[in-house]
Amino acid sequence: MSGDGDRTGYVENRSLRLTRTGALVTIQVGEDPLSGNRSSVSLVQARALGGPRAMAMAMAMSRPQAMAMAMRPGAMAMAMAADSQSVPAFGDAVLSTWIELREIALLDSGDRDTPSKYPYERLPLALPPGRERTTEEIYELHEKERALRRDRLRQSEVRRQITANDPIDLLRPLGIEEFASAFPATIDLIQTVLQVTERVGYVFKARFARPRPNAVDPTLRPFLPNPPHASYPSNHAFQSFSVAHAINRAIPEIPGAIELFHVAQRIGENREYAGLHYESDTRAGEELARMFAPYLFQVCRYKMAAAQREWY
Q1: 17 falls within a domain
Q2: Between the chain's N and C termini, which has fewer beta carbons within 10 Å?
Q3: Which residue range(s) make up the domain with 208?
Q4: H helices present in the chain, as ranges
């Protein structure tokens, strides 16, 4: 690659799909051994791609134990192994969001030329930056790495935000972090948005397949283990900004609702300080949330209305 405008090396992978049941699958083209015809074969990859969900399961345990697990090699696999023994506090909620996930899969794009593509897959998210800008971003990450060593407040935030599915930072601006039981519909809406956008984000990550920063520059030392999926766009940013859009659409007059955009930006930046994302990953997550919002409002319309009734 040469120059910031050079996109060589970023070949979009459009083989990942979100099924009507909310599972992530890869589509491979193979040959039928009997007929010799080429056919599409779906291979389920949902659990292999569940990095944030794995960390959410760890967070369901005691926080000290979860933090110790997260900082050890193989933390993802260990968290997945605990799946059958622990109940996620606010993590994997596929059953409670399957209606929205199914509706996203059923949305009609109106494009008969490529009927296998879902409409949100056509969102014009820009390609990751080229080599020149990536080099600049890595230099900035080294500076953020040094700054994080002196910033204990941000360190605690980074650890708390290991998974984007922990809602405490998103509830605080609304003033309901200690009164969640009084706002079940609002909690349900936030949970649904986080789950839906998590899965959609994986589709875009697989498309661009951008390596994590320390895979490009091994001298970077991430504060947390690298999740087992691509860097671009940042799912933490995508999910958090999507919550901000949904809440401000449903209850725009509520004090603190607009603050969610600042919280989302902070969450995204914390992942940069942790060495897990480039700045452009965070911007891409914010932009994807803006573009995906109309689809999100459509599939979450009933839960948005229910949340609105709690506040008015």
Answers
A1: no
A2: C
A3: 51-311
A4: 51-59, 63-70, 75-81, 94-106, 131-150, 152-160, 168-171, 184-208, 213-216, 235-250, 259-273, 279-299, 301-311
